[in-house]
Amino acid sequence: MSDSRQAHPARCASKLAVKLQRPTSLQRFSFQLSVFLLLAAFTANVWAVPSLKKAVQPTPSPAKNEENPAPQPQEKPDSKKADNPNFAPSWNTQKQARTWVFNIPPPRGQICDRNGLPLANSRIGYNLAVSFAQLQFSEAQIAPFVQAGAKNNSDLASYNDLQVGRFVQEEAAALGKLLGRKITASQEAAIKHYRNRPLLPWVLLQNLSDSEVQKVRDAKRESWELLPFYARQYPNGFLAGHVLGHIGLTGRFLDSPIENSDPLWPDTEGRDGLEKTFDSVLKGESGQLNITFNTSGKKASENVTLNPIPGKNIITTIDIELQKLCEKTLAAKAKRGAIVLMNPQTGDILALASWPPVDPNLFVPFISNTDFQKLNNDPNNPLIGRAFRSSYPPGSTFKCFVGLAGLSSGKISSSELFDCPNAFEVGNRVFLNWKKEGTGPLNFAQALEQSCNTWFYQAGLKMGGQVIVDYATRIGLGEKTGIPLPDEREGRIPTDEYMRKKYGLRLTGGAVANLSIGQGDTEITPLQMAQAMSVIANGGKLYQARLVQQIQDITGDVINAYPVRVRREISIPQEAQIALRTGMIQVVEGGNGTAHQARVEKVTVAGKTGTAQWGAKPHQKTAAWFAGFAPAEGPRIAFAALYEGEENHNDVHGGTNAAPMIGMVLREYFRDKSKAQPIVPLNEDGTPAIPEIAPPVPAAVPVKARPVEPVKETPKESEPQQKPSFWKRLFGLGPKENPVAEKPC
Fold this sequence. Notes:
The protein is α+β, with helices and mostly antiparallel strands and about 750 residues long.
């Protein structure tokens, strides 16, 4: 690396998978100018030397040279000083006649969206510091104190500290009056700084806003100095805040005696999100500032000998416009929830939105205790990124994966009929359908359209729990997606081993019935849901979920790239693909579908709604889902929307709460008519990976089915009552329970 460091624009540019705009000469000049202005501020006379006419015992010099002491300054005789030995300089300016080397912390690299637009960057911020150069103690001020009984320099030191404390309090009060807010100054911190670092101004207020900076400049108060620094900035506010994370200070402003390589201001580090994962990449290389003081203790010269090098840039897969659209939709439609958009042909995450949001600017340069407690105590938990850090029971959306398992394994066929009664008895337990009346025999596509629970109980029991578990895990459920964000939830697919450890039961009977409709202990994150829908959309490829495309240096050269990668392939027969697509289209377009509010004109949307409760009463909540892909004939986008209801509110459903959110997003997305054109994925031999969609299946004619009487008596846990039945003998069931009423989808 060359020793000559030049500040370059931190504009993102791509040379690989996506074509990003390389910065223009004007943009490069603008960034270089901003760096120059910051460095120029260092070379200005911003550090004045305190002038103490009368003071106390000398403070030890930061750098002593006992062998070659600096010469004493020549002064005119002062009879008063000679007569009173208590009067002495507070520090030896002669011993501070030297050059100090300070580190200039570098600006962090940018985090950009897939088109090079900044999601996080650096700006020049300003701290307000108080210069002790204006703090002067006259002979008249000190004389009364001496006459009152001060006998030595330590007594005078107490008086000196008192004056420093009063001085900073007066400065804080004046600043607070100017800015219109309360400014608190720590007298103890100011005094310690004054004793150890009197050459340097003491920082009273950090990270002033633009308007506050202007007010301070207009005030022209002699004791105030604006010290520039590189500040982290999130130009879009809370947008993608859970993805970006935030930064924090690695330390505080120093108050110890000056040493070489002291930083001009505290450096920062990533504390969450991409800021944390790529902290070492985003950090740059420190610059160097040399300051020379002459024998009288005044600054003689100041020179930037090494320019700081900005950190490297992170190019994400996020589309900033889609991220804005998803967060705008959540703000309008939900108090709590998440929307995830993915490209099913690559695994790229286009939007990863969680609501409520958190603004990472609150953490710059540090978050106040008041702001943190407000976030931490908010009942809506804005600090949690629900899209990838929260998992929920999937409800009826899981029926798509049950169908995938049964049809792909050959355990059931697309034309196989099961009755759809209003209730179904499994051993000694009665499971209810969400509809009060049965609809007669249905095939898979019809059952998916109507979301018939009792149909899926029977299908799930026929294929067995292990088949469902196998296919669920193959499409990425029950494991982390592997995105580079800390604390991603892995969700849960209840296996036989899990059921034995937690309940002492096998994955059979009632447990399989629950699993077949996405209830029980099954949990999925919205990101996992979108990823699983992508597998169905592209015909069986599980791509590695990709959030970061590249790492670039400040010139745009690619340092590292994360290419599109297939994790595994699932063989999905054409019969299964046609049945799945047909059923999911009918959910949106069919007469008995539950997601009519997700329709988009001239675009075929395939999806599935879901509703499920979780949590213990009286704090039980309802999760409403809608997930799928579009256009169904050749998907460009896969999606998952999660609406988190209020405690003990049972009027939440996938079709009325989650589907409208996706409808709002897709209608805006497909305003661009070119995006409405299907993209059919191809196999390696060039043949289509997905089949043509079969014509819509007409709605089934409702047939009144014989209701099943619920079990009236609930057994005690210590004495379970058994009711032998065919299903119990076949699958082995647990104790008798009350009938379970399922929510409409």
